[in-house]
Amino acid sequence: MKEIVEQEKRSLKQQLQAIYDNKMAYASLRMEEEMFPRVLDRVPEYGRIEDLDRLAPEDIYDVYKKMLAHDRMDLFIVGCFDEIQAKETVATFLVQSARFENAKWSIYQLVVRR
């Protein structure tokens, strides 16, 4: 697991460095940093190079578990399927999975007829 995290950190670091090498992208990033006075608003969604070295696999997994427990999740099922069976399958999975025991969820249906 640690090797995978290090590989992903190297990949992200390269992507972030590419932003700094692209004058237009870097200018946009700097503008956002100046426009938003709050620290959390100033951090881009893809992170900062200087934060990568501090990330540990355990920290990433802890955040992942918190996201599963507290963040909103949307599930889209597209194609031809039996509605009742799909609802039962999703509900069974959510109930059986310990990760979702406290999750708030709803099933919404979008029907497109031709």
UniProtKB/TrEMBL annotation:
InterPro entries: Metalloenz_LuxS/M16, Peptidase_M16_C. Gene3D superfamilies: Metalloenzyme, LuxS/M16 peptidase-like. Residues 56-94 form the Peptidase M16 C-terminal domain. GO terms for molecular function: metal ion binding. It holds the Pfam family Peptidase_M16_C. It comes from the Bacteria. This is Peptidase M16 inactive domain-containing protein. It comes from Shouchella lonarensis. The lineage of its organism: Bacteria, Bacillati, Bacillota, Bacilli, Bacillales.
